[in-house]
């Protein structure tokens, strides 16, 4: 009997030591990238794929798309463990390659001048270490681009049946126009234990020269999800607004887009769960508005840009909400705004596409 008790005691001691060692590993492995980080600007495709005469100017129509690609995992049958579903990883490597390739091809077919993408994995357990940016660049050719990292986790042994592992991911911005500079801004995040599961939240700013010697300033964002506190969400918006306002007051044109993790429509869908928050439009700074307000018809934005991932997608049953969109300064004229309905075939999100013109500065 003493040997049994001793054995159990040793076993429990080993478990405790292992847990303490793992907690130490998480603490030591957690890090955040510095704020105001200059981003390297690259070119996608062959040299002859670039339009060397592309210039951003007033009274010309341009097209921009924002799309969260869901790290190549979210086929219609996929459900995500953090949303109450089952899976942590994509189906397999071949599935990731096929899904990201299809996303890149579909986005390219829209023929946008500017592209915002979120949840692009560069090296992840969950996506079988596929460099998804390299895959996307095979299809999205003729652009300048940059990658802003917002996730680099230590190895996560959760959920136990399919540990999330280590993952490096971020935001990608593409531009037909030449980028004068690109910078990554670090958003405030929760300091609780949830930070180990959340992203290193950030946004990127791309400044593209215009013909009137101003800049088109593109903000690619992926804001805090519903699990974050009101204080964190408010702090993130305050920081974002300050930068946008500073660019606007310099006479620049500002477009902010991406995954806001807030409902950007004016009303929540029926039977919305508790986690669904509506974007606080009343907090927008002077000179800015939600671009969805300028959609030409309700039909253009009837399809929601995101579906719940707590279960495999079932049309007409699965909860949907619009988390993706754009904010524009009042010197940007929205001429078209549409939610594309791809049936959530490649991601738990579908694209939002906007056409716009710059209003000539006097």
Structure write-up:
The chain is globular. The mean pLDDT is 90. It is α+β, with helices and mostly antiparallel strands and 362 residues long. Strand 9 (215-222), helix 4 (230-249) and strand 10 (253-259) form a beta-alpha-beta unit. The protein has a seven-stranded mixed sheet with strand order 1-7-8-9-10-14-11, covered by helices on one side. A seven-stranded mixed sheet has the order 2-5-6-4-3-16-15. Helix content is 19%, strand content 27%. It has helices spanning 2-29, 93-109, 132-136, 230-249, and strands at 37-38, 42-44, 62-68, 114-124, 143-152, 167-175, 181-186, 202-209, 215-222, 253-259, 288-290, 306-307, 320-321, 324-329, 332-339, 352-358.
Care to give the gist of this entry?
This protein has 362 residues and is of the alpha+beta class. The protein has four helices and 16 strands.
List keywords for this structure.
4 helices; alpha+beta; seven-stranded mixed β-sheet
What is the ordering of alpha helices and beta strands?
Answer: HEEEHEHEEEEEHEEEEEEE
Q: Could you list the spans in which at least 5 consecutive residues all have pLDDT below 50?
A: none
| Estimated structural class | alpha+beta
Query: Largest beta sheet: what is the strand line-up?
Result: 1-7-8-9-10-14-11
Instruction: Tell me the number of helical segments per DSSP (H or I, 4 or more residues long).
Output: 4
Mean pLDDT score, rounded? 90
Q: Topology of this structure?
A:
Blueprint: H1 2-29, E1 37-38, E2 42-44, E3 62-68, H2 93-109, E4 114-124, H3 132-136, E5 143-152, E6 167-175, E7 181-186, E8 202-209, E9 215-222, H4 230-249, E10 253-259, E11 288-290, E12 306-307, E13 320-321, E14 324-329, E15 332-339, E16 352-358
